[in-house]
From TrEMBL:
Cross-referenced SMART domains: HTH_GNTR (SM00345)
Gene3D superfamilies linked: GntR ligand-binding domain-like, Winged helix-like DNA-binding domain superfamily/Winged helix DNA-binding domain
Entry-linked Pfam families: FadR_C, GntR
Domain called HTH gntR-type: residue spans: 5-73
InterPro entries found in the cross-reference section: FadR_C, TF_FadR/GntR_C, Tscrpt_reg_HTH_GntR, WH-like_DNA-bd_sf, WH_DNA-bd_sf
Protein name from the UniProt record: GntR family transcriptional regulator
Length: 227
């Protein structure tokens, strides 16, 4: 039983990888179960199990008596699929970093405002570690990720942390690339210090405004980094 589960996981991962890489494009049909079983050198029950999970998570749409259709995962996806997408990012693409920076623009200012408004002292305590921050990409990536998750945790809305947790296996790789550029580290250092000042005052509205401005500037810097 355990061997069968591991085998079906392998089939599932390979099909997801083919969808994400574009080898299986949205709107196309998967090969029939018989062909997939031959391709993966497994039994049809193993393939069927993998396909059932793919359908459950929204990767494909099953059709009675016919091969499944590949879905458009960006438009039809959910949080479960997000975790799979992140796991299958073998290389950190510029496009995916852009998507994450845009997501930060939307989410981060709100949960930072909530954190300062509801847990001012704890926000200050998290930012107090700023004095130990080393000027290298790895240190900034680790520090920034810790800040993001702590601020989300200090917000009353648990959904923010749930979303961030989906990126645990990916964020550090993405952030290390982002912080490898001196201008990006300098902007973030200035932001961290200004945020600490605002948090000490307990000004949640100003914290939200500041975070939104910096998130937008980070996005612009990344878009224009090769100009």
């Amino acid at each position: 039983m355990k061997i069968s589960e591991r085998t079906s996981d392998k089939v599932e991962r390979k099909l997801i990888d083919d969808i994400l890489s574009g080898n299986l494009q949205a709107g196309t049909t998967l090969p029939p179960e018989r062909e997939l079983a031959k391709t993966f050198s497994v039994g049809r029950p193993t393939v069927r199990e993998a396909l059932q999970r793919l359908e459950r998570d929204g990767w494909v749409t099953a059709r009675k008596g016919q091969p499944s259709i590949v879905n458009d995962y960006w438009n039809q996806g959910n949080l479960t699929m997000l975790d799979k997408i992140v796991q299958n990012q073998q290389s950190v693409t510029d496009e995916f970093i852009l998507y994450l920076l845009e997501l930060r623009c939307s989410l981060t200012p709100t949960y930072i405002q909530d954190a300062v408004a509801n847990n001012q002292a704890k926000v200050v305590a998290v930012l107090a570690y700023l004095e130990d921050l080393k000027d290298d990409a790895d240190s900034y990536a680790a520090f920034d990720w810790k800040l993001q998750k702590e601020f989300a945790r200090l917000s009353p809305n648990p959904m923010y942390l749930l979303i961030l947790n989906s990126f645990d296996s990916f964020y550090l790789r993405m952030a290390t690339r982002y912080f490898s550029i001196d201008a990006h580290r300098n902007l973030s250092l200035q932001y961290y210090n200004e945020l600490l000042t605002v948090a000490l005052k307990g000004d949640a509205v100003e914290a939200e405004k500041m975070a939104r401005q910096v998130m937008k500037r980070s996005l612009t810097l990344w878009k224009n980094r090769n100009d």
